[in-house]
Design goal:
Layout lengths: L7 H12 L4 E3 L9 E8 L13 H11 L12 H13 L3 H11 L5 E3 L5 E3 L1 H12 L8 E6 L6 H13 L9 H14 L4 H8 L3 H20 L13 H11 L4 H16 L4 H4 L7 H10 L5 H10 L4 H8 L11 H8 L6 E4 L2 E4 H54 L6 H21 L1
Parallel strand pairs: 3-5
Antiparallel strand pairs: 1-2, 2-5, 3-4, 6-7
């Protein structure tokens, strides 16, 4: 029985195509026992892109925020506007031109998967590439796309499970960004009663892997929330390493320490600091070190005063998002962080009584974060230097103790050389004498 919510004209058209096709193929990822589905060829400009496609979810969130249309992809998902926006997203993703070139050279190698009304569950990017080849580049061989057709009574949970399975399957795999994968994991986590084992089973990953992706996303949610709509999840695809290290560090840390490190990391991410530098700021006083560097810079110091005033109205929001109280751990970065988080897309900004280049100001603050990270690294090295002598002596004592226990047996074995042992013992005594003199 057809779903009455479907476009029945499209369902009828596709049903007629299926009747005219005798070809069938297996879809192992389909969750039902009967995995053999009909194969049909459909016009690339007739099939519809899935607006529920998790590979584009973060990009959709950005378009929704920028347009102010919360129902842009849901009010009429098969309509002209939603489909045009989805097509634009697919064409703008990394690797689109490579897919076009491959399809032009080799043609379609694997069938796409569509619902009973011709909505793509798998193969959205490939169909977008074929459509571009046909409509823009006039490649006649790209006019049709081969598709497996799902039953008309397929449910939404079945479709999500299918998409997840196809994401894992090597022959269908199209790369997710880490953000879109994490958004999918979050959706499954909430649907599966927050059971990590069930999520890991769905994603074919370990519980630790899916939980790490989820926790990275929670950090990203906070940074996007701070921007008041000026920055979007899709903007931070290239910052995966920083979010991985941040999420791993704050997982079991006290709230104040987590907030301090998070603030420093967020400011570093926004101002373009390399994650390898930021890892030196994984310490309780991270925000204090960064704030100190900004305060000691004559050019940047007014930023602290200006933003401290501007941020007063936002402190409650920041506290809710970051869990950080003003002056926590001796250094409040809330004002500066709020300022830079909300500046997305601007060329200039008001600073110290005049308009300045935002990119130049961000670069200067980024340099201050870098200096703070270098100072933290130097302090860490100094700390290691302080404890190194005792550590080395402790290690030596342990090895000498083990040597004494092993010596009696070694002397009974063929090949033992007493002279060599005594020579080494003399070296040890000389080294110990030198150490005592140095002390």
């Amino acid at each position: 029985m057809f779903n009455p919510a479907m476009d029945q004209d499209r369902v009828h058209h596709l049903a007629m195509r299926q009747e005219a096709s005798a070809r069938r193929a297996l879809l192992p990822a389909w969750p039902r026992p009967d995995k053999e589905l009909r194969v049909v060829s459909l016009e690339v400009d007739w099939v519809r892109f899935s607006t529920l496609n998790h590979r584009t979810k973060s990009e959709q969130m950005r378009v929704i925020t920028q347009s102010g249309r919360s129902d842009l992809f849901t009010a009429d998902p098969l309509g002209v506007e939603a489909q045009a926006e989805q097509y634009a997203i697919l064409r703008g993703q990394d690797g689109f031109e490579d897919i076009k070139s491959d399809l032009k050279e080799r043609g379609q190698q694997q069938p796409a998967v569509v619902t009973a009304e011709g909505v793509l569950i798998n193969g959205n990017r490939r169909v977008a590439a074929l459509r571009s080849l046909y409509l823009d580049d006039k490649v006649k061989s790209a006019r049709y796309v081969m598709c497996l057709v799902l039953p008309a009574d397929a449910t939404m949970p079945e479709l999500v499970d299918l998409e997840t399975e196809l994401q894992i399957a090597r022959e269908f795999k199209e790369d997710y960004t880490w953000v879109n994968e994490a958004l999918l994991i979050e959706e499954i986590f909430n649907r599966e009663q927050k059971d990590w084992n069930r999520v890991s089973s769905r994603m074919h990953k370990t519980s630790n892997e899916v939980r790490t992706q989820y926790e990275k996303l929670q950090q990203l949610h906070q940074l996007v929330d701070l921007s008041n709509g000026t920055r979007h999840h899709a903007d931070f695809v290239d910052n995966e390493s920083a979010f991985t290290e941040l999420a791993g560090y704050v997982r079991n840390k006290p709230a104040e320490e987590a907030a301090s490190v998070r603030s420093a990391y967020f400011l570093g991410i926004l101002t373009g600091v390399n994650y390898r530098s930021l890892r030196n700021l994984r310490r309780p006083d991270a925000s204090t070190l960064v704030r100190s560097e900004i305060a000691n810079n004559v050019t940047l110091a007014p930023l602290l005063e200006q933003q401290a005033t501007d941020a007063n109205d936002d402190l409650d929001i920041l506290d809710d998002v970051l869990g950080e109280k003003p002056n926590a751990l001796g250094g409040d970065l809330n004002g500066v962080l709020s300022f830079f988080a909300s500046q997305g897309g601007k060329a200039e900004t008001a600073f110290n009584g005049s308009n300045v280049s935002l990119s130049a100001l961000m670069s200067s603050v980024g340099s201050a974060v870098d200096v703070a990270a270098e100072e933290a690294s130097a302090q860490q090295q100094d700390g290691k230097a302080v404890t190194a002598p005792v550590g080395f002596v402790t290690e030596a004592i342990g090895k000498i103790t083990k040597a004494a226990k092993a010596l009696p047996k070694a002397r009974t074995l063929v090949g033992w050389k007493e002279a060599d042992f005594k020579a080494k013992l003399d070296e040890l005594k000389a080294a110990l004498s030198d150490l005592e003199v140095s002390a």
